[in-house]
Amino acid sequence: MLLLAFASFGQNKLQTPKIDYVTVDTATGRPIIGWSAADSENVEGFIVKRLIVDGVGVVSGTFNNVAVIERNDVFSWIDNSTDYSTMAKPSQRIEYYCVSSYVTIDGQKYYSLMSEPCSTMLLNVEYNQCSDEYNFLWNSSLNTQVDYYVLHSSQDNSYVKPRFAMVKDTSYVYKFDKFIDLRRFTVECVLKNGFSEFSPIVDFEAEQQIAPKIIEISNVSVNDDGKIELTFNASENKYVSKYFLIRNNVDIGVSDTLAMSFLSVENFLYVDTTADVSVHYNYVLAAVNSCATVFGLSNTAGNIVFVAEKGDGNINNLEWNNISILPQDIDNLDIMRSIDGEEYLTIYSCNAQNTNYSDVLSNIIANREKHLGSFCYQLCLISMHGDTAFSNIACVSREPVIYIPNALNPNSSNSENWTFRPKADFLDDYKLTIYDKRGAIIFSSQDIFDGWDGRNGAGKLYPPDTYVYLIVYRDSMGKKHKLSGFVNLVY
Length: 491
Hints:
- It contains one helix and 41 strands.
- With 491 residues, the chain is mostly beta strands.
- Strand 19 (215-222) and strand 20 (228-234) form a beta hairpin.
- The relative contact order is 0.08.
């Protein structure tokens, strides 16, 4: 029932009570109203009214009785009322209260004017993940005795809360020294009359933007098209806004940033089309959160740069960069070689600590095969799990090699001396011609493995003498060469 705003008896009026505080009990979460009345000895009791917003049988938004205190020496009340099929919800909304006093004369109740309304405080807390700051906002107390506000926080279930801020305003931004996900907050309004008002406790759970559990570059290799190819793994993470790849040129110390097109992926294959495979790069995959901040980095992984150069004599010198930063658990390294565009075959296996190898070609020259002199090499890394990664291909073109004996002896005990055959390799269009002293051709062959045995077509030995040889060939660049000299036939 909506009561009269005032009443009188005789020549006197009841004085209006004054609300000293409206607080929320930190243990129960229930509103507590405290008041005082200058003429309390002249009244029988007090009426507590609450602004009803969702009640039954009353006009929403009006003050209605929630308690009748039938004593004049009681000046506080805990609001557990369920009148009008509703009860106070101070943790969800601001609750407003008024108090009036009453007296009964001749069976008739007379009421004072309602006090000025006072309200509970409602604290709102937000957490800014980017700045690691808490934003606090609360309503201003309607009490005229407001002095200042105090913010309290606890890391446990304690209701005694250490204070961390004293402010005059009704908002505050604060950053704690360390992040704790679950904190309890309340705001206290300190009144000049010696009382304090507390908001309901807010149990607030803050979320930090935690990097994905898995961010890795699992493989770096050179593919068949001669491009650097990387394999990524990144676990699902709601905080990731994007990934980008940092590519650092190790030789000159210059970094580039390459955008990625995934948020979570398993065995994602990326081809770095702008990289030079002869340059040593280190790669790092970076995760960026919604604050545009890098908050997770992968391992560092680099490509293998293979270099092949001609060494002294019949040796090709091979070198490659240290591969200790590659992601795989390395089992071994296989050095593979292709001669004149043929299939790559493994010629040597070593451990991951090796960074060089010398390929001695003497055995190639000595065998009965003809080569054009093009040698290409590639390093294959094999992990403990059987995964492979390849280097770039490095090639060497060898100049023709020709060893020319100066004599032959068909009757020698050493078969190597029975024929005049230059040991030649890494050339093309080879032709050997033997002339006698008159300039007549006595032997001719285009087979690099065919030599003159000192005999004519009938198998008869030519007489011991000095003969002339002419060797004609082309090198790997197609340039024609001629070599001539003398060979002695002895027996």
